[in-house]
User: Fold L-aspartate dehydrogenase from Brevibacillus panacihumi W25.
Amino acid sequence: MKIGIIGGGSIATFLLQSINVERTLPNSTVKSVLLRRPEVAEEWESRYGIDGYQDLNAFLDSGIDIVVEAATVQAVHEYAEKVIAKRKDLVIISVGALVDQTLYQNLREACRQNGTRITLPSGAIGGLDVIHSAYASGQLESVSLTTRKPPLSLIGREVETEEVVFEGTATEAISKFPKNINVAIVLSLAGLGSDKTTVKIVADPQATKNTHCIEATGAFGRMSIQLENDPMPSNPKTSYLAALSVLSSLKKKTEYISIG
Amino acid sequence: MKIGIIGGGSIATFLLQSINVERTLPNSTVKSVLLRRPEVAEEWESRYGIDGYQDLNAFLDSGIDIVVEAATVQAVHEYAEKVIAKRKDLVIISVGALVDQTLYQNLREACRQNGTRITLPSGAIGGLDVIHSAYASGQLESVSLTTRKPPLSLIGREVETEEVVFEGTATEAISKFPKNINVAIVLSLAGLGSDKTTVKIVADPQATKNTHCIEATGAFGRMSIQLENDPMPSNPKTSYLAALSVLSSLKKKTEYISIG
Assistant:
């Protein structure tokens, strides 16, 4: 599988290191990267053996099978439909873009017309397999997410006892905490949608890491999942699991026998 | 998507009811069923609008896109390679068959040669998305499963306090509890393999339902998931989530935008 990446940040670097240096994906390589800065392109060309592009069409015509967007919400708005129109599968990391219902529906329709697929990595959370299963036949009743973070990183000050910073629907959480809330978006898309998924964000003086707890109920029974996320070694602001989940999405495309 | 089912039991019935009667999968229908008993075939033909077959080749040539094995381990041994050779994607429910490493490797190779995919539904458990992500780049350290069941259903007698019926590797659990342990097989395949996945089975007088707890650790951090499984309305011996996960696997094949 020949992969193209849009973006020049820490996720792009992680993918290049994993795939092109450590060879974690069988028979796969990152061939092309679309990024703004020519000096980074030049450095990556020699370090990772990729071709760097500043022009989208040249990037899309460079012999790649699949594109990973690892840039920004703006990049999704700007490039996603064009990627699909060129019949490339697409992995979208900046899932915040899909809050825009018009974009979501346009991308879905473009995939249908071009016979392509968009994959959203599960990010810093999990148990989405259970939620997808429960939802598949209308058997999902409730989904709630509780995110706990160290106070300083969340609200910029210390607190003595835990402080509920937000409690409400995922829709509200997404608009009030746009930087923190990719998990709420993916969770909403996996199940009941953002109006029916509830979110609680807690500044917790006991928390040394970001933790997410998801509870779901339905005719299947009950699920509860707790995740304690360690940061990426190369970028303390990103959960390592979120980066690994991108690799997981790509790996699934290459598996002949897979689970889910 | 035109679906063919191998099997005439409760999962087959559930899929027919969900897909052909309740129309839970967009633009999809079960077209053909391979089953042993002609009288069931006849009844299902009129009830669900399917075509019943006793002959595998006639079934495979009936215009179906994908096959769901919902029968037995023996049926996987007998039919799976032939399904793949006809270039049909395959969903395998009787995952116990894949304990046979030779069969597993043969199926994988057959998929590679024919450009097809085998999917294993996540069954009565979840969080396999996290395990797959952690494993994708060698970042998974430990995976353990604790299954609790009501004593009577597990060991045929009541106990006063909880009794650990088994503790060891998934490999041992699979050979000692073949009927109970599909979850251990799927969990092993998702991550560290059956020699490195640990399993504990507990007869719990407090348990009114089957519950599964999975813990995983690695460079990503830590995951803990608890599942309380309600039974299928139509078959108290099967977890409803296991049935729903089959529908989920099929639904993913029809989604243009999906998570995972």
Summary: The domain at 2-120+240-254 of chain A is CATH 3.40.50.720 (Rossmann fold). Chain A touches chain B through 61 residues (CB under 8 Å). The longest strand of chain A covers residues 140-149.
